């Protein structure tokens, strides 16, 4: 039986926030956009439909939790929630806090400029705030 492992590209581009009951929660290392990625720890899952109904509901609950955390901490103009997987096939969900004045507004964040990594002190602070908001 295979063991679940995080895709190396997601690992390289994110910071671990913590683990919920189904998903690892990760912070995209781009301080232009407060951006969480939820990765269900399900071996071989690439699509939402790969999950049974109960697991789909658990994922929806965890997306809601992540969305509420970003709303509380960042007060965004809009929240974007998406599963794409065109580059990283492993099932993962993007939850992105968007602002009318952000670098990509109103377009999607993908392909807009280059990521600006968080300074170490800023990422540490945000990670701690996210862990508290998510009760991790």
TrEMBL record:
Domain HIT span(s) in chain numbering = 36-105
Q: What Pfam families does this protein map onto?
A: HIT (PF01230)
- Looking at the record's lineage, which domain of life comes first? Bacteria
Recorded GO terms, molecular function? catalytic activity
Entry protein name = HIT domain-containing protein
Q: Which organism is it from?
A: Cognatilysobacter lacus
């Amino acid at each position: 039986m295979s063991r679940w492992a995080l895709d190396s590209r997601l690992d390289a581009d994110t910071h671990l926030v913590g683990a919920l009951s189904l998903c690892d929660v990760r912070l995209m290392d781009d301080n232009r956009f407060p951006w969480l990625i939820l990765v269900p720890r399900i071996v071989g899952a690439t699509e939402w439909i790969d999950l049974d109904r109960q697991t789909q509901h658990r994922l929806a609950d965890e997306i809601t939790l992540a969305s509420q955390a970003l709303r509380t901490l960042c007060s965004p103009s809009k929240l974007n929630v998406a599963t794409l997987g065109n580059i990283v096939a492993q099932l993962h969900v993007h939850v992105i806090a968007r602002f009318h004045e952000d670098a990509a507004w109103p377009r999607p964040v993908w392909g807009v400029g280059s990521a600006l990594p968080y300074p170490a002190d800023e990422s540490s602070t945000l990670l701690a705030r996210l862990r508290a908001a998510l009760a991790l």
